[in-house]
Design brief:
Elements: H1 16-19, H2 41-49, H3 59-73, H4 75-90, H5 105-120
Helix pairs in contact: 3-4
Length: 121
Amino acid sequence: MTESEPDDRDLSKVPPALRATCWKAGQSGNPSGRPRGNVGLTNRIRKVMETEVKGGKQLADVLAEILVKEAMKNPAKMHPFIRDFIERDEGKVADKLQVEGVNSLRDLIEELDQSRDDDED
């Protein structure tokens, strides 16, 4: 919206004292916002993980080796930590849905059709 276009919003319910401070149509509610280039914690951690350490390895590789070694020592203790760590980085794996008594999608469709036919009777 340009300044020459009329503002067609209904401001009748807004108290007169607040009308002057209302956002204009298309105006951001947070014009300052987060500055461009301001990276979050996850991106900062990724950057640190890319740094090289002893032997030319990246810090991420060293950390992965340590996690695997610790997990092998005590799998029950480390499994939840490693799972949460991987889900945080890679994203959560979708849960699998298991349907019992159905051998195929075709069987499932036939059963649904049969139940609909029974409901109609």
